[in-house]
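Subject: Predicted fold for CDP-diacylglycerol--glycerol-3-phosphate 3-phosphatidyltransferase, 191 residues

User T.R. writes:
Posting the sequence so we have a shared reference for the thread.
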Amino acid sequence: MNLANRITLVRIFLVPIIMVLLLINVDLKPLAFDDFSITWNQILAALVFIVAASTDGLDGYIARKNKIVTNLGKLLDPLADKLLVAAVLISLVEMSKLDAWIAIVIISREFAVTGLRQIALLEGSVLAASKWGKWKTAVQITMIIALLLNNFPFAFLHFPFDQISAYAAALITVYSGYDYFVKNKNLIPVA
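User M.O. replies:
I've generated the structure tokens; pasting them so everyone works from the same file.
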């Protein structure tokens, strides 16, 4: 169990903490300015999410830099990413902050690409993240933070950045999934 894998495990252990913060109602007075309001739970959940999301690049960087890339890390890292994103998306749907269809599109793409990666592993190769996959991750994280923070600071400008980022995340998620499958169609068995 090296440092990179420990960081990945921390990301997995932060998932239930974020969910508790989002889904358990605590009767603390929300933080409010004019017509903007946000619960302390959401602020804490957003901070924990930012910490968890930032460990994604950190664990991979440490593993590559120190030449400690392991099969366990190759398995845990994408699993941790999927757990984090899926748990928060489902929580946001439950909180009526995200349309269910967007969460379904994003989670379905994650399962499909994970399946393709598993096929590649069985064939003896590893599918590296594409530039579209990296953009997809960045847009999804941006969207999640905007939704967790009730569109702060854009709410003061009456600009629906959170909703625009949700649609952008859905579009880039679909395109990045399409890109993975087109570039790796040789891995898909045709009967």
